[in-house]
Design goal:
globular, 9-stranded mixed sheet, alpha/beta, Glucose Oxidase, domain 1, 2 domains, single chain, two-stranded antiparallel ribbon
Length: 256
């Protein structure tokens, strides 16, 4: 019998749901027991009245972007090549990347549109007294999850700069995550930087993965419920064939 340590599970995910505020499509059709039962009876060639109480099982039909809700990007999302080789799709991402020691870096006091620098990341690590090791999963807390389902969810957060992401990659980090809608700064700030002629302004951390392979998860939640380190985190993606990303039920395992 395995003697599992006592842990507290923390749900780090937001749900897939019908909504009008996200540009990534999320449409759920709910079939109750009578409607789903009629479909099942039709498929079996029997009378729906023969079902117990005239009801079958319930079910749902989803039309959802793989980048809706809490999800993990695959290298292929960032470009067709990564480090000169065909970029991995989500069903090719090693599961070993998706489970490991978690680290939370707190930037929730940074203003919307702020670009988190490598120095910021280093200072945040010094503040919590943690030395990164290869394959740690680094979570960027912006506090944006508290705005989920609110109109400013898309533009209320700080984003990772190219240099900060590159610095983490150079420490052996393969997987990062954020509680914000996106990993880079919000679109309106990205556009402003681009029109001002700044290099690497458009999706800088995303497109960096064309040069240096890494992946990140977006739209996590409840990072404020975690300690800075000393916990495990799981970001296993649904296995969608040849996809550029997939939904995850992100969970942290915090020792009691």
């Amino acid at each position: 019998m395995v003697d599992w340590p006592k842990v507290r599970l923390v749900d780090l995910s937001v749900p897939i749901m019908n909504n009008a505020f996200e540009p990534q499509e999320q449409v759920i059709m709910y079939w109750d027991h009578e409607a789903y039962g009629r479909m099942a009876a039709k498929n079996m060639g029997i009378d729906p009245a023969d079902l117990p109480d005239g009801m079958g099982t319930s079910g749902e039909t989803l039309h959802v972007s793989t980048h809706a809700a809490t999800h993990l990007d695959a290298p292929y999302h960032y470009g067709p090549l990564s480090e000169g080789a065909p970029a991995r799709r989500i069903d090719q991402v090693p599961l070993e990347w998706c489970f490991g020691d978690g680290v939370v870096l707190d930037f929730h006091e940074k203003p919307a549109g702020y670009e988190i620098t490598a120095r910021d990341v280093q200072d945040a690590l010094r503040k919590i007294g943690y030395a990164l090791k290869p394959r740690d999963i680094v979570c960027i807390r912006t506090g944006a999850d508290k705005h989920h389902r609110k109109p400013d969810f898309f533009e209320c957060f700080a984003g990772m700069s190219r240099e900060a992401t590159l610095w983490l990659i150079e420490q052996g980090i393969k997987v990062m995550a954020t509680d914000a809608w996106g990993f880079d700064v919000p679109y309106k700030f990205m556009k402003r930087n681009h029109l001002a002629g700044r290099p690497h302004s458009l999706w800088p951390s995303h497109f960096l993965a064309r040069e240096r392979e890494y992946i990140h998860a977006e739209k996590l939640a409840n990072l404020d419920q975690l300690p800075p380190s000393g916990f495990k985190i799981a970001l296993f993606p649904i296995k969608v064939e040849k996809a550029s990303g997939a939904w995850i039920r992100a969970v942290a395992f915090v020792p009691e």
